[in-house]
Specification:
The structure is a single chain. The protein is of the alpha/beta class. It folds into three domains: 65 residues, no CATH class; 170 residues, no CATH class; 205 residues, Rossmann fold, CATH 3.40.50.1460. Helix content is 29%, strand content 21%. It contains eleven helices and 18 strands. The strands form five sheets. It has a six-stranded mixed β-sheet with strand order 9-8-10-14-15-17, sandwiched between helices. The chain has a five-stranded mixed β-sheet with strand order 5-4-3-6-7. It has a three-stranded antiparallel β-sheet with strand order 11-12-13, with helices on one face. Helix 10 crosses helix 11. The longest helix is centred in the middle third of the chain and has 28 residues. The chain is globular, with a radius of gyration of 23 Å. The termini are far apart.
């Protein structure tokens, strides 16, 4: 807030939460003036107060129905004027007051660009060190280090926030070691009120070894700290604009599958061949009119109509992030996001197994946003490029984990899939995939339950 010693346009941000989940907010512009000053000269024409929609209020009821309470939550509000404010809630981080709030150093568009640059180096070779560096850059922008350029109170808050995050990570890993399958929930939400892009944050890239260090890539990292990425140990809840937290009454059995058959593009051919057993097994449980093997039939199906039941849509393809278009071969026809008008009853799910389908580049979020408007409440996407073998390995691990239980909650299934990829060998090289699994990101409603498409006789 500005004061009479720093007059000008400010905002009062009112945040709404339920059981640790930050659900929405209202921004109220305020012009702070001194006696005798002219408000118009200080603040110009202030924007109108933002309005909470009916959908925002319905989230309060839906979220209160959830039995799982997050272990922590991060709510970042990017107002139409000024820098974003971060609000961190952590009831078990060793503090009497579970709330901490601080101002970020960058606007959301700059933050998106920095993270995207960290995720996409000049060369395509990636290893655990590469992902550690990207996660450190992300952490440093969300939880900035205390410095002498800000007032002492703000500096203390920043320090406390970093300490709280470290306590959360270390204690959660310790509990997991003691309890085996414990997966704490971390709810993270970024809301923009101006023209800046919506931003989904790959929190799983944060590595425990770097939580206490101010400089990314610093050689003096404490070797005794566990070298663990949070994405393998937390369920991250990253809401989409059209979101529901209501428990799914039954699992999704209505699957739709799209991939090139035959594949003529060499990269897709390699991915389809490696995952061929999984794809053919799924086809046996999917109706013929739910399978699409050329881009024309997929584009025509997505262009209109509606599904009668919540659906699971799997697309194995290339993706042009600049034009938001799915395609099966270079310089061939495409299915642009702007033409996807088919309606999917909430809560439906999409697995978009292609490069950069969840790109964090500014203004490149149309595919997921478009599908979300059409009823897709959750999606598994990629934040950067993915090798064909990795795309195939995701399908293999996803099927293996779902096959083991037949019915599974999406959020738990996703983390199990990441762990499976991490421990799998890359057939193209002589090492394991490791943190390359973190290329994938789950956004939206992780409460969705999926039934395996490969066992149609067990569907109700």
């Amino acid at each position: 807030m500005k004061t009479d010693s720093h007059p000008g346009l400010s905002s009062l941000l009112v945040s709404f939460s339920s059981l640790g989940r930050f659900l929405g907010h209202i921004e109220v512009p305020i012009c702070v003036v001194t006696a005798g000053s002219d408000p118009a000269s200080l603040c110009g024409n202030p924007p109108a107060a933002s309005q909470a929609t009916a959908a925002d209020w319905s989230l309060l009821t839906a979220a209160s129905e959830q039995s799982t309470v997050p272990a922590a939550a991060l709510h970042v509000i990017a107002p139409s004027n000024g820098l974003p404010t971060a609000l961190f809630w952590c009831p078990h981080c060793g503090r009497s007051d579970p709330y901490l709030a601080w101002q970020l150093d960058d606007d959301v568009k700059h933050l998106a660009g920095v993270i995207a640059q960290a995720l996409n180096p000049a060369d395509e070779s990636k290893n655990d060190s590469y992902w550690e560096l990207a996660g450190c850059v992300l952490y440093g922008h969300l939880f900035p280090t205390p410095d002498g350029s800000i007032d002492p109170t703000a500096s203390r808050v920043r320090y406390a926030a970093r300490q709280a995050m470290t306590t959360l990570a270390l204690s959660s890993l310790a509990k997991e070691n003691d309890q085996g399958s414990h997966l704490p929930l971390f709810s993270a939400r970024i809301i923009t009120t101006g023209s800046d892009p919506e931003l989904r944050i790959p929190m799983g890239l944060i590595n425990v070894r770097y939580l206490l260090h101010d400089q990314c890539g610093a050689p003096q990292v404490d070797e005794e700290l566990p070298r663990e990425f949070l994405g393998f140990h937390f369920i991250f809840e990253l809401p989409l604009p059209q979101q529901t937290y209501s428990p799914s009454p039954r699992c999704i059995t209505n699957w739709r599958l799209a991939y090139p058959d035959p594949a003529t593009d060499k990269d897709l051919l390699a991915a389809v061949e490696q995952a061929g057993d999984v794809l053919k097994k799924w086809e046996n449980g999917i109706a013929a009119d739910g399978q699409f093997h050329d881009i024309g039939s997929l584009r025509g199906w997505l262009a209109g109509g509606q599904e009668t039941d919540p659906s699971a849509l799997v697309i194995v393809s290339h993706y042009d992030a600049s034009n938001q278009a799915v395609f099966f071969e270079q310089k061939g026809p495409a299915a642009p996001a702007g033409f996807m008008k088919r309606y999917f009853p909430m809560p439906s799910f999409a697995l978009l197994d292609a490069c950069s389908t969840g790109s964090l580049e500014p203004d490149r979020l149309d595919l997921v946003s478009t599908l979300n408007q059409q009823g897709i409440a959750a999606a598994i996407v990629t934040t950067t490029t993915a090798k064909p073998s990795l795309a195939a390995q995701f399908l293999t691990c996803f099927d293996k984990q779902l096959d083991a239980t037949y019915e599974e909650q999406l959020s738990a299934l996703f983390v199990k899939t990441l762990r499976c990829i991490r421990d799998s060998d890359d057939p193209d090289y002589t090492y394991r995939y490791g943190a390359d699994a973190l290329t994938y990101l789950l956004v939206g409603d992780g409460n969705i339950r999926l039934c395996s498409p490969a066992l149609p006789e067990r569907k109700e």
